[in-house]
Amino acid sequence: MTDGARTATRSGVRPREVATHCPYCALQCGMVLRATDGRVEVAPRDFPTNRGGLCQKGWTAAELLDHPERLTTPLLRDRPGGALRPAGWDEALDRIVTGLGAVRDRHGPDAVAVFGGGGLTNEKAYALGRFARVTLRTRHIDYNGRWCMSSAAAAGNRAFGVDRGLPFPLADLGRADTLLLVGANPAETMPPLMRHVTELRERGGRLIVVDPRATATARQADLHLQPLPGTDLAVANALLHVALTEGLVDRAYVAARTTGFDEVRRTVAGYWPAEVERLSGVPAADLEATARALATVDRAIVLTARGAEQHAKGVDTVTAFVNLALALGLPGRPGSGYGCLTGQGNGQGGREHGQKADQLPGYRRIDDPAARKHVARVWGVDPDTLPGPGVPAYQLLDSLGTPTGPRALLVFGSNPVVSAPRAARIESRLRDLDLLVVADLLRSETAELADVVLPVTQWAEEDGTMTNLEGRVLRRRALREPPAGVRSDLEILAALADRLPGATPLPSDPREVFEELRRASAGGPADYGGITWDRIDADTGVFWPCPDPDGPDRPRLFADRFPTPDGRARFHPVDHRPAAEPVCADYPLHLTTGRVLAQYQSGTQTRRVASLRRAAPGGFVELHPDLAARLGVADGTPVRVVSRRGELRAPARITPTIRPDTVFAPFHWPGAARANSVTNDALDPVSGMPEFKICAVRVEPA
């Protein structure tokens, strides 16, 4: 972005061209937007994460700006079961305030809940947390990022003392000699990342992928480990077992920089490769080869993603891979380490500044008296008036409309009717509410149930910041004004605060909100105190923690110490345990879920882009040819996938790239093809992560 363009923006005149970032995943690819003859054109730019590349979702992102289905006026439902009708903003906001007031008067402040999203800017995530805790005085706030990053976050916090998805720049991937990807398919979920993997391969490095499917990423690997879903923890322990028995552990690093290794050593002693082969299906020789490939090179990286994390033992599974990385002495060395591939666009920043049930801005804990005192001072309130911790996302949604749960819900940037596990149950809970308010740019499946729907701005119409998968804080820049009748989430929160009796005013200008966020986060684990919009504009973003406006940021963590009381990382012994729902005679197959290249999350946006819809028009169920033959199913035959919670119906896709005991369905579609009608709502006891990635099912012709 030129200095002239920045000056024009500050003067109130929109530029004809801005440098910004893609609205989709956490790679946050750099792009340029140009206003041309009433249209918005997208072009890639050379940014450190995408290096001039974009995927097809990024290329087509501007098609939603003027989409015929875009919401440009509030919608109201006059009676239960009635149709949504257009309304003015005053009527819509008054309806919300009246409804919230009635619920709070009858049931108290905790009868109101807020549900956010991992795609909201840092400013919106921060404002949403403040709105819930100060304006509404409710403890009930969480967000859909709970279903994305929470297991890796919990594991990172307990091992390293901090949760930053990648504690090193993404460019380190290209410098590694061995890269182990566990439950990750970036060739489809974030294709420009593969440029870094290509650099690794061209340097002679090795790519090893752990995935029950031979995905587009796995097909590029030098070695593909194809375990039974839910056995990744055992695989990780077996890798560490091999490292121990073959003398590959970095004993000096373990002694100098960690604690707790002896108990882990005793735990993994029983994970013989031959035994783990029987359990997981991964050949013992491949386990041994993987351990050696990681331990006998100068630089190695272990990355996990949703495939390893979305389990009722997700925290322990990630911990097992962190243990492996620590035993090999990887964290803190350039070109080496452990990291997690964040999914949603602001999945990192969204969990740092107050959307999570147990957190305050700066990644502070809400039950920490010092944290409460600091943030309350910034907010101008008594710390004793701040509510305590709420409950994680699924528990929150599952309690809606019940005698002890919230009776009103405000949803910003999420579509739980499609994205929640055991989705039919959550849909029923939403219908039981006294008041459901949804802020979105399109009529999502959740918006269709709402009493009030509010139209909001898109990424090309708003300024703010995002924090990508590296912990790099970036600038989102507006190219144009939103359509008449559309407001930003910040403006909506400020307008509601103005109308609610006794509420403290909220700023609606994103720069002003960010300045407040800086003060609230200062001194916390995710310290943004030294980050300013101008500083971001002057470079390719700023990595947190950055406490000093004149001091350096931290692209790479753990070089000298870990942010724990004694500066050492913590090993934690973890044992494999079976999936929450084992297969049986009635449900003899494993179902796993995931994404496809042309769609994103619940599909609210991407399903409305014509070229993406043509590339991926609907749901499907992947079956191995042997399984299809046993079922008498041909390619394209409609099938039913049935679990104890519900069923999905979609055409069969016959492929040898999946295990014969496992079926796969993408989760982007609603209706009959809704994968989350089937998925298990068993939760990780630490993170609250649902077991999206494995449940017991049967498959039959529809």
Write structural notes for this entry.
Helices cover 31% and strands 17% of the residues. The chain is built from 25 helices and 28 strands. The protein has a seven-stranded mixed β-sheet with strand order 5-4-18-17-16-6-7, covered by helices on one side. The chain has a six-stranded mixed β-sheet with strand order 24-26-25-28-23-27. Strands 10-9-8-12-13 form a five-stranded parallel β-sheet, with helices on both faces. The longest helix has 19 residues, at 89-107. The chain is globular. The N and C termini lie far apart (54 Å). The model is unreliable at 1-11 (pLDDT under 50).
Radius of gyration from CA coordinates: 24 Å
How would you name the oligomeric state of the polypeptide chains in this document?
single chain
| Helical run tally | 25
Q: What composes the largest sheet?
A: 7 strands, mixed
Shape by Cα distribution: globular
Spatial strand order of the main sheet: 5-4-18-17-16-6-7
Could you report the average pLDDT, rounded to the nearest whole number? 96
Q: In whole angstroms, how far apart are the ends? A: 54 Å
Structural class: alpha/beta
Number of strands: 28
Q: Helical percent range?
A: 25-40%
Report strand %.
15-25%
Residue windows where pLDDT falls under 50 for at least 5 positions = 1-11
